[in-house]
Amino acid sequence: MSDTAKLSLGGKDFEYPVLSGSVGPDVVDIRKLYGQTDAFTYDPGFTSTASCQSKLTYIDGDQGVLLHRGYPIGELAESSSFMEVAYLLLNGELPAKDELDKFTYTITRHTMVHEQLANFFRGFRRDAHPMAIMCGVVGALSAFYHDSTDIHDPVQRVIASHRLIAKMPTIAAMAYKYSVGQPFMYPDNSLSYTGNFLRMTFGVPAEPYEVNPVVERAMDRIFILHADHEQNASTSTVRLAGSSGANPFACIAAGIACLWGPAHGGANEAALNMLREIGTPDRIPEFIARAKDKNDPFRLMGFGHRVYKNYDPRATVMQKTVREVFDALKVSDPVFEVALRLEEMALSDDYFIEKKLFPNVDFYSGVILSAVGFPTSMFTALFALARTVGWVAQWNEMITDPDQKIGRPRQLYTGPTQRSYVPVGER
Ligand code: SDX
Questions:
Q1: Which helix (H) or strand (E) is 393 found in, with range?
Q2: Which residues form the active site (predicted)?
Q3: Can 403 be counted among the known catalytic residues?
Q4: pTM recorded for the entire structure
């Protein structure tokens, strides 16, 4: 591709530099466009807009490729751990053993939350959605750690990053315990990051809790699959909030709010609810017809993606993990058969083929989470737990980016032009 892009506008010709990354699409650098042409570009949903430069995650939507710092998601899911992927995203390289041990030790010793934070839960109804609680409680963290909110101090940024990664499992587990009326469980530092989360969620003070290694491995892999995903809506929300210099805990709370939407992280809960509503394979054609009907707002939840126009590589790993968990727990769920059949029928239907709609990360995740014992209302909270690693890594990258400025898009104004006020008696 040439190294400049030419634009003719208003009878004048303009040229803009074309920048190339290490892999993937080039970008046209239009930072001077408005100053030179007095016109904005128009891109609702940012379908053709690169908001930043990043070294964290690369996605090739046509090839179904997902790399974290260059490592394919399939290899990381197979051979790595969530703590190791967290270190990789934050620091850029896979850790040596002593580096990983030190990082894990640090995270482990930040897992407790301030004792007063428990009071925030008691303000919620017991049937509050866990994501409503996560928004509120994670936002409240911004009131507790004044020693790690100077975002221009790299030491404080690291402390805030570690606190967020370490405390999300504790807060998510507390949200679950609150919803079922059980006492909160304190972290147990002798357990792995994921094992500790499982014990805080499903353990009770009345008896010891044995972490099932198969479930621990499956959950750790699910966390890896959800860790980061380029400039998705919630990550862009965290970057935009962070671009004003806002408190890091508040920025992550903003990301949680965005992730909650059913078009984004809320799709895992919506997908399982949809599969349960379908109930049996013979009802699948009815739902596929609804998904294709322009007059019906229904969409197949867990299908389609802004970037993947091929199979989401995370969905591949997720489907394989369903089988492993079912075999290990000696359980089955007819909803898995419905999911497999739905995928098969949708992927042979012209509508889904033409629109390149494939299962995404959210299509199978709920089947596993349900088998492990999580209520569907907790699914997006688990997504938020894992995605905190990506949000924190992207927030750090944004703050240290020399090109970074406060995010402030413009608009195409289509409202009334200037007019004079009319007193109420003359209207
Ligand atoms: C996540 O960005 C990320 O990376 C997100 C994520 C991450 O890790 O952060 O990967 C996590 O959010 C995964 C996506 C989870 N959401 C869902 O599963 C909800 C169902 N899917 C969609 O609503 C939709 O596919 C989106 C939101 C995911 C993507 O929407 P786009 O890119 O804006 O595409 P679109 O809505 O313009 O759809 C293109 C066409 C439309 O038809 P036409 O207007 O061209 O006729 O495809 C149709 C849509 O109607 N379509 C679907 C569909 N998804 C898109 N039709 C039926 N069922 C669907 N699921």
A1: helix 379-399
A2: 305, 362
A3: no
A4: 0.95
